[in-house]
Design brief:
Shape: globular
Radius of gyration: 24 Å
Largest sheet: 7 strands, antiparallel
Order of helices and strands: HEEEHEHEEEHEEHHEEEHEHEEEEHEEEE
Number of helices: 9
């Protein structure tokens, strides 16, 4: 089997080398694992999977310009099919005119190597199934259905400059639909969780929270028009707030003029620390190299509230004269000096479920329709729904407060509680 697999890749490499392309990149990605589909707690179907495909990108040079085009090629494609695809890419690349840049070259031995995380698919799957089966259901809140996807990823990257590196790492995903019922009314809440393998403690906590949110959603009052109010984020929508900082330090946004942040600029609260990290426990993105074969490493992006470094693709990094660039995969945010309890004092609205929440990294605008929130006002806590929140991270970033406790969302480790000041809260009656 290994010989057959190598034969397909070798055939593709031979075609690329004789294609007339001035440069090329190939990612050979194979995903093997199991999938399970449950209705209630009854296994409806399951299957094994073994998927493999080649992602190919070719480059053509024209004076001071470089064109590129890419496509995915099935691993079982015939040599003739591969050849036609590569010829088409070479033709397409000839119509593209980007300022010239060079591809990554092989690095020093060991730079883009990491311990291979080849997971025990059976053990990981069993942990997911047992944890979901033990969810704290009641007569009025339970799991309607759930799907479990557990994989081992093998990714090999090669390019015309001589890079040939391989990484193996785990990737898992769980989708859960929670039902809650009361007095003839019923609602559903959807939860998607991504990780490397199964962290049973984290999964159990997420399930318990979602079941509780389903219960509380059925007893909400309409969100009142609160005007300007502090809003607390303590669930996965908080990720969007921190992606605002991450995105605006990417070389692509800076080169295009979308972000004007420069190293040394004050861009965040003075205690905020943002890092790109090579390895984050139980992340599904722990490959040692990026999509262009560059070694991933730990890198300070924001320290003391000041921008420290950019991160990004080879193309835009070279345009900005940034050396040793890479596309970061895992990020951590820390530096909070207050506890979760400190941030949950006084009057505030804690939104835990949105119908949709977005933070625009270009404008800084935030907006979301409230599905479930807890209004803390005058010493009273009221579950509410409807209405919306809006504001601007560009204006609120300087006064945001965040906890010293952390919470992980797959490849992102951030403060578990974030509080924004003077967010506009529109009431349900105005929606």
């Amino acid at each position: 089997m290994a010989d057959i697999k190598n034969a397909a890749l070798n055939a593709l490499l031979d075609i690329l080398k004789s294609s007339g392309a001035d440069a090329w990149e190939v990612t050979d990605r194979e995903e093997s694992g199991w999938e399970f589909y449950f209705i209630r707690h009854r296994l409806d179907q399951h299957r094994a999977k073994n998927l493999r495909a080649f992602s190919v990108k070719v480059y053509r040079k024209f004076d001071e310009f470089l064109g590129s085009a890419g496509a995915e090629i099935p691993c079982d494609a015939s040599a003739e099919e591969m050849r036609r695809t590569v010829e088409g890419l070479c033709s397409d690349a000839s119509y593209v005119r980007n300022p010239a840049y060079t591809l990554n070259k092989p690095c020093a031995a060991g730079e883009n190597e990491t311990a291979q995380e080849n997971p025990d698919i059976e053990a990981v799957s069993g942990n997911f199934i047992r944890t979901l089966a033990s969810a704290p259901e009641t007569e009025t809140e339970d799991l309607n259905s759930y799907e479990i996807f557990v994989s081992s990823i093998r990714k090999r990257f090669l390019n015309s400059e001589g890079i040939d590196v391989t990484a193996v790492y785990p990737s898992s995903m769980v989708e859960v639909v929670v039902n809650a019922r009361k007095d003839g009314h019923e609602i559903e809440l959807y939860k998607l969780l991504e990780s490397g393998t199964c962290d049973r403690e984290t999964l159990a906590r997420e399930l318990a929270e979602t079941l509780a949110y389903g219960r509380d959603r059925l007893v909400t009052s309409p969100t009142p028009a609160l005007g300007k109010m502090d809003v607390v984020f303590s669930t996965d929508p908080a990720r969007e707030l921190y992606w605002y900082f991450i995105d605006r330090l990417s070389t692509g946004m800076v080169y295009r003029g979308i972000s004007d942040w420069k190293p040394g600029d004050i861009v965040a609260p003075e205690n905020l620390i943002l890092k790109a990290v090579k390895f984050l426990p139980n992340s599904s993105r722990n490959a040692a190299f990026d999509a262009e074969g560059a070694p991933i490493r730990d890198l300070d992006l924001i320290t003391g509230g000041r921008a420290a470094h950019y991160w990004g693709s080879r193309q835009f990094s070279q345009y900005l004269k940034v050396d040793d660039s890479f596309i970061a995969s895992n990020f951590t945010v820390s530096g909070g000096t207050e506890s979760e309890a400190d941030l949950r004092t006084g009057d505030y609205l804690e939104v835990v479920e949105f119908s949709d929440f977005q933070c625009d990294s270009v404008t800084g605008d935030i907006a979301g329709e409230i599905r479930l929130a807890y209004l803390h006002q005058n010493g009273k806590v009221t579950p509410v729904s409807g209405g919306s929140v809006s504001g601007s991270m560009a204006e609120m970033a300087g006064t945001m407060r965040f906890s010293k406790e952390l919470r992980q969302y797959n490849s992102l480790l951030i403060p578990s509680v974030t509080r924004l000041k003077d967010v506009t809260v529109t009431g349900a009656e105005n929606g």
